[in-house]
Amino acid sequence: MTAAAVLSGATAPHAPWLRGPGRVLVWVAVAAWLAVAVGAVLDARAGTRAGR
User: Fold this and answer.
1) What is the pTM assigned to this prediction?
2) Is there a contact between 6 and 22 (Cβ–Cβ < 8 Å)?
3) Which of residues 38 and 14 earns the better pLDDT score?
4) pLDDT of amino acid 51
5) Sequence spans of domains, the chain
6) Is residue 23 within 8 Å of 2, Cβ to Cβ?
7) What is the number of other CB atoms lying within 10 angstroms of the CB of residue 47?
8) Cβ–Cβ under 8 Å, residues 3 and 20
9) What confidence score (pLDDT) does residue 40 get?
10) d(Cα 19, Cα 10) in Å, to the nearest integer?
11) Which residues make Cβ contacts (< 8 Å) with residue 26, sequence separation at least 6?
């Protein structure tokens, strides 16, 4: 949400410099979502193995 706020603020007439930090924050958010997704898959796989 912070990335979206920064990127939308970058559209203001005198704040184009916010595009860089906004893009960085987007990629940080993508990395966090990927880490959570991988953790969820690994946890689900471990749970199905334990249930056998």
Assistant:
1) 0.73
2) yes
3) 38
4) 63
5) 2-50
6) no
7) 9
8) no
9) 96
10) 6
11) 3, 7
Give exposure, 1-40, as e/b (b: 16+ Cβ within 10 Å): eebeebbeebeeeeeeebeeebeebeeeeeeeeeeeeeee
Amino acid at position 8, single letter: S
Can you give the three-state secondary structure of the chain, one letter per residue? CHHHHHHHHCCCCCCHHHHHHHHHHHHHHHHHHHHHHHHHHHHHHHHHHHCC
Give dist(CA 20, CA 17) in Å, integer.
6
Question: Please, are residues 21 and 6 in contact by the beta-carbon 8 Å criterion?
Answer: yes
Tokens of 36: 């959570």
Rounded mean pLDDT, 35-45: 96
